[in-house]
Amino acid sequence: MKSEQEQTREEALVLDLPGLALDCILECLPPSGLFSMACVCSSLRERCSGDFLWERHVKQKWGGLIGRTAHREWEMHVSSRKGLSDLSPASWGRPGSVLHNGERKSYVPSDTMMSWYVALETGKFWFPAQVYNRENGHAGFMLSCYDAQLCYDSKTDTFQARYPPLGRSEAATESGIPWDRVRAPPVNTPPHDLHVSDCLQDLRPGDNIEIQWKLNQEFPYGWWYGVIGHQESCDQNSSFCRCPESDAVVLEFNQFPQGSEWWGMTLDRRNHREAGNNTYGFYGGIRKLQNEKEISTWKQHWPSEVFW
Q1: In a domain, 45, yes or no
Q2: CB–CB of 209/251 below 8 Å?
Q3: pTM for this one?
Q4: Within a domain: residue 191?
Q5: Within the chain, how many helices (H) and strands (E) appear?
Q6: Can you give the residue range of the structural domain that contains 224?
Q7: pLDDT digits (tens, 9 = 90+) for 80-133
Q8: What is the C-alpha separation between 94 and 87, in angstroms, rounded?
């Protein structure tokens, strides 16, 4: 064990470095190392908690999962606390430099990027996201994406989810969810609200889409993946295809066998709101997928027997 005098001398040597050199060193540290440095003394805590150091770490690990809604909820969470965050989780190196109730702890302002990162990393903050779910139903293979509140477990590198109640049932929970099953909500539409479709006039055969779907009116919407198909009267020859000019838009869901009541539906591009019934569910708003990563993510969850 180092004596307090030896530790003080090491701290002084670090702080004697030129500011630019010290910043270069800090920029090379991983989050856990940066956190440990912040626990050394008040001077390093102030320097190591700078947003310019933590923005990169937040973006690298959480940028693909944390959407605007999650960040807005974090801001509301911070404003309600208006104080300092305790940044002394056991998994983040040695304790900090501020003595509190007999224990050494480290504190930084709650509205910093460092506090945001650590709250996510330690699972202290539940945030809104979406989870891909795959199951075999009575009508065939089911793949959907549902809204949930997520909490990260750094020990297993997985997530715990709390789903909104389905009708009169209690909220469901799930643990051990890997990263490839979660995503940031692509739109800000709450799960019980109809998404306003702004792409209906642009839909063409072959386009990839997501559409809201729910089993009945008491359930929240989830999202299904599908493609835009041709009408029965079309010979599917691109030179003579008039499907884009028609008010009827054909949706195909290849997770179900062709001919199934679930395999496809037709909607009116001029006046689409919500369509369906209590037997086969209700279809809501549509969003056109422009990003190849979104499309490939849907497909990687489908079984190998589903052909495209």
Answers
A1: yes
A2: yes
A3: 0.81
A4: no
A5: 8, 15
A6: 200-300
A7: 766 555 555 444 543 333 333 444 455 666 778 888 898 899 998 999 999 998
A8: 11
